[in-house]
Request: fold
Amino acid sequence: MTVDRNGKLSTVEDRPFQAAFRPVLEAVSSQLTDAAPSPLHSLYVYGSVAAGVARPGISDLDLCLVLKAPPTEAERADFERIRRAIEAEHPVVSKIDFDIGSIEDVFAPDTRLAWQVWLKHYCRCLAGADLRDALPLFQPSRAVAVAINGDVAQVLERYLGRIAEEPAPEHARRVIRAAARKLIRSTNILRHPSDTDWPETLEDHVRKFQARFPEQGREILYLLEQATTPDALDPDRVADRLRAFATWLRARSDMDGGARPE
Reply:
């Protein structure tokens, strides 16, 4: 993601989706809006599919579901069933992830920054009333970085828990890749208050991190390796190194006076 001439974060360009991914996007939109009445307010896609740079059979499909009200356990179970079914039917994506929230989350004082930044600057609307039209543009800041990456510890443990549940090498590779990418992006919480840039690619994050923390250069390059060619032969060893980096990141964030990534 770049910064525009007014110092605001850029938004994802609306362009035709890649032809290979249109069937899975149509399936998701259809199945999530078919219920009557549907709990869904609006549906968004982010990541490589949204940007138009996804690779068939390799890239994930990342979706945000904004509901009209906080989800019930039954609704969560329905969404999980739909997610698994579409994932199985559409191998053009390596996996499908749902981030589920509600209108309340988008506008509540303690969660609105994360949701509004994410929707406005990272997402494209697939179905429903597009909330992005009513949201402001945001400037790069440490508060924004922490808002969208401060959940790194929780997300990491959720990813690593998936490996324990289903340790098959192909599954482990997908999860390790996602966990490493999350950790790399989360290094942005260590930005200086005076920084006006906003790293876009994984390589951008790595270069910026290496310049400031050369003593951690080996570990950040290891994360980049796992983000591209994950090692599923010894997932326990990989998990230990990912956790160790997350622990260092949390301690460094506290040292710098930032919000702790819980």
Residues 235-255 form the longest helix (21 residues). The radius of gyration is 18 Å.
